[in-house]
Amino acid sequence: MNTHTKEIFADYEHYLRKFRKKDYIQNMELFRAKWNEILAATVQAGNYEEIAKDFVEQLKNTYKRFGKVSKTRKIDLGLFLIYFVFPGILLTEKAGAKELCDILADSWNEEMGTCIEYLSYDEIVENFNDKMFGMF
């Protein structure tokens, strides 16, 4: 995963653009088709603390401007982690997937000064509202 960090996040804005249940399901299918093998291999590799540290450091170095990552960018990257990367890791159903997510979330929170947690794909899909205020 670490050798593909930049590639995984290259299209994150596209994945977050439309955010309805149907769009999320389609985008997650695309994400998994592209990255499932890499995520599964990462879970099987072990050494999660080093993987998480390197992953967060690469993101930080890729997206920092003037020495730091902007608050807006942190929010966008955090959302992409929560909605695509963490569920993608968990959907590999490999032993250690949850442990990797725990360590990755802790590393992200520590390095970026945030407090994100993760959900499974099923929990995310289940919590989408099909209609907001009966309008959409």
Description:
The protein has 136 residues and is mainly α. The protein has one domain. 71% of the residues lie in helices and 0% in strands. The chain is built from 7 helices and no strands. Helix 4 (48-63) packs across helix 6 and helix 5 packs antiparallel against helix 6. The radius of gyration is 15 Å and the shape is globular. The N and C termini lie far apart (37 Å). The model has no long low-confidence stretch (mean pLDDT 90).
Give a brief outline of the structure.
The protein is mainly alpha-helical and 136 residues long. It has helices at residues 5-10, 12-17, 21-45, 48-63, 71-90, 97-112, 121-127.
How large is the count of helical segments?
7
Helix content: over 70%
Low-pLDDT segments:
none
Strand share of the residues?
under 5%
Distance between the termini: 37 Å
Layout of helices and strands:
Layout (H helix, E strand, L loop, with lengths): L4 H6 L1 H6 L3 H25 L2 H16 L7 H20 L6 H16 L8 H7 L9
Helix pairs in contact: 3-5, 4-6, 5-6
